[in-house]
Amino acid sequence: MTAPASAPKTIEQLQEAFRLATRADAEALADAGPVADAFRTYANRCLSSGTVSRQLPDWKDVDGYLTNRRMSPQVRRRATATTTLEAVVEADCFDAPYDLVRHASLFALRVAAFLRSDAGEKYDVLIERSRIRRSEDLSFDRCRRIVALLGFCVNRSRERVRALNQRRDREMRAAGFI
Questions:
Q1: ∠ Cα 41 45 86 (to 5°)
Q2: What is the rounded average pLDDT for all residues in the chain?
Q3: pLDDT tens for residues 32-52?
Q4: Positive/negative CA dihedral, 57, 58, 59, 62
Q5: What is the number of alpha carbons within 13 Å of residue 41 lying toward its C-beta?
Q6: How far apart are CA 140 and CA 117, in angstroms?
Q7: Helix 23-30 with 136-175: angle, nearest 10 deg
Q8: Hey, is 125 helix, strand or coil?
Q9: Nearest to 107 by CA among 81, 59, 146, 49
C-alpha cells in the first residue's frame, strides 16, 4: 500500500500538517501509545496483506463513511456502551477485510478519541476561527489531519521495512550467502 503524495514523509511535514509548535510535539504524537496501537491494528490488517497494493483512501471518503455509519439506524438505535460507532465500524472491518476505507475509518476513530482525551488534547490544534464557516469544518479538519497521520505512519513503516531489508541483505552478502 502506498500513501498519497500529499502524505507527510518527514516529522517536519507532520508538524506542519498538525500545526504543532515544535518538532518534539510531532515526534511525541507519532510515537504516542494510542496512535501506535491504532496503526499496529491497521498495519496488521492492511499492510501485511500482499494483495493490498492500493493507495490510502482520501480523507473525504473516510469522513463520508463515518458520517454514513453515524447516521445509520444500527448506530442511532443502539447507541449503548456495547454498540458504539467504533464497535460497528470494527464489525464492518471484519466483514470486509480488504476495504481500506473501513480500516482507515477505524484508525481515524481511535486517533480522534485520543485527540479528544486529556493526553492528546495538546496535539489537536484547531484551525483559525476566521476559517471556520460551519461546525463541520472542525471535524473535516480533524479527519484530514488524522488521515495525514495515517499516511505518515504508512510511509515510516515502509521506510523501516526497506531499511531492515537492506541491512539483512548486507549481512547476508558479508556472510557469503548471496
A1: 55
A2: 85
A3: 999 999 999 998 888 876 545
A4: negative
A5: 19
A6: 18
A7: 80
A8: coil
A9: 146
| CA 62 to chain CA mean position, Å | 10
Contact (Cβ atoms closer than 8 angstroms) between residue 153 and residue 110: no
Which tens digits make up the pLDDT trace of 141-164? 889 999 999 999 999 988 888 888
Instruction: Count, in order, helices (H) and strands (E) of the chain.
Output: 8, 0
Cell numbers placing 62: 473516510
What is the enclosing helix (H) or strand (E) of 8? none
> What was the pLDDT predicted at 149?
95
Most confident by average pLDDT, 6-15, 87-96, 101-110: 101-110
Q: Quick one: cell of 95? A: 466483514
